[in-house]
Amino acid sequence: MNKTINEIVNKKNNDLKALGAPDRQWSTYGDLKKLTAYVSSRLRSYGIAVADRVAIVLPNGPEMASAFITMAQSCTTAPLNPNYREEEYLFYLKDLNAKALVVLQDYNGPALAAANHLNISVIKVSVNPEHLAGEFELLGEIHNSVISQRLPTPQDVALILHTSGTTSKPKIVPLLHSNIVSSAENIKSSLSLSEDDLCMNIMPLFHIHGLIAALSASIAAGGSVWCSPGFDALKFFRWLDDASPSWFTAVPTMHQAILARSKRNKDTIEKNKLRFLRSSSASLPSQVMKELERVFSAPIIEGYGMTEATHQMASNPLPPLVQKPGSVGREAGPKIRIAHELENHLIDGTGEVVISGPNVTPGYENNFEANKKSFFYFEGERWFRTGDQGAFDRDGYLSLTGRLKEIINRGGEKISPLEVDEVLMDHPSVAQVVTFAVPHEKLGEDVAAALVLEEGSEVTENDLRAFASDRMVEFKVPKQIVILSEIPKGATGKLQRIGLAKKLGLA
């Protein structure tokens, strides 16, 4: 789909509802177009051109949604987790080579401190809660330099996200306008989205899942997005009543939290009939899938996505076709095949899941080694290695049988073990550390670390966790820390993450 975000927004009927939120009036596509023109004019006056990178640190809600959609039409957006610590912001802003940081007008947190330290210009977002959902003003420093007014092409980068790799340094994933439009259209098609659909977004909008599945796919369809301030199981059913959506998308842990409160909210569920529910970013247990279908009397569409694919790769189909519990569905956009895990060719049976298509990133930025490992050409097509192992059944449904990489998947949040290692090794009492995954009933996996202390050290597990908490966002901090005299090693003397939980009796 060789189009830009600008093109898909501009084609929409001005009168259609675009963005809503709790206790806010709806904005329309006409309002979104006006805001886009205003944002473009302001960004150019601040000296920001199409290729310049703008980090966005805003809370979940309609302004985060409209900031992404409008700014992506004028520059390269880089949404960042609002819960990061200053050290993390310093890394990401520097790594991105960000030209500006976007924050709320009254924000005075670690992202601002990091931007000031790096001498990065700050653009403030002013929001009046009396105004339409998603409406805002920009406050920044006017530049006198002449900036190109050109609009982005399909090959310009619209969005940059970082993904955890097997090295300590997260990898930069640039996503083009054509990638985003292609993926949004794929999701629109697989879910049969239309102008009549209303998505209640509970996903974070600094993550590929929320940005593409909930927001961009809805906009591609001319549908509406009701933006929550972030997931809250206690408020979910009140929001369901307020928004009366036709669908929502979530990660399995959210679905489980919703189920836990469903019995006392039967009337709300009955009153607000959903066309379907969607689940992605981590494997949905088949028991949960069946219970959701029973409680909501609606199909559960499980999808398979990742950042490098601009989210969706496979999806279970809508009825009357079959949803298979335990499967991530069928091809839903890119071509999906199985490749030999070491050699660059396709195979039958079980192997590494690979994808090819217009929604796949052009490649990691400034990372020759990662690109060499992750991409290969076979019979004239370029394939991306997902790092997942899987196989197709005779009906073309894909099942994942394990992960080849050591990334910890904590409820859809991907964590690099080496990134955690690096932080813990900064502690003066730590001599050796290996971070690894431990099974978790609800999240699928959680973070654990095995450590060897310097001789004579008396530091506690709580001390180490507090140390890590000051330097990393909370979901990366090990929930279990095991202090050992020696960490088990493999035959070659290497520290091995895979299987460590079992060796230590934690699995």
Q: Can you describe this structure?
A:
- By secondary structure, the protein is of the alpha/beta class.
- The protein folds into two domains: 5-303, ANL, N-terminal domain (Rossmann fold, 3-Layer(aba) Sandwich), CATH 3.40.50.12780; 408-503, GMP Synthetase, Chain A, domain 3.
- The protein is 28% helix and 27% strand.
- It has 15 helices and 26 strands.
- The strands form seven sheets. Strands 4-3-5-6-7 form a five-stranded mixed beta sheet, with helices on both faces. It has a five-stranded mixed beta sheet with strand order 12-13-14-15-16.
- Helix 2 packs across helix 3 and helix 9 (252-260) crosses helix 11.
- The radius of gyration is 23 Å and the shape is globular.
- The two termini are 45 Å apart.
- Number of discrete domains: 2
Task: Give the biggest sheet.
Answer: 5 strands, mixed
Overall shape: it is globular
Q: Strand order of the main beta sheet, please?
A: 4-3-5-6-7
| Second CATH tier, the architecture of the largest domain | 3-Layer(aba) Sandwich
Average pLDDT score: 93
Determine the N-to-C terminus distance: 45 Å
Q: Determine the CATH superfamily of the largest domain.
A: ANL, N-terminal domain
Instruction: Point out poorly predicted stretches.
Output: none
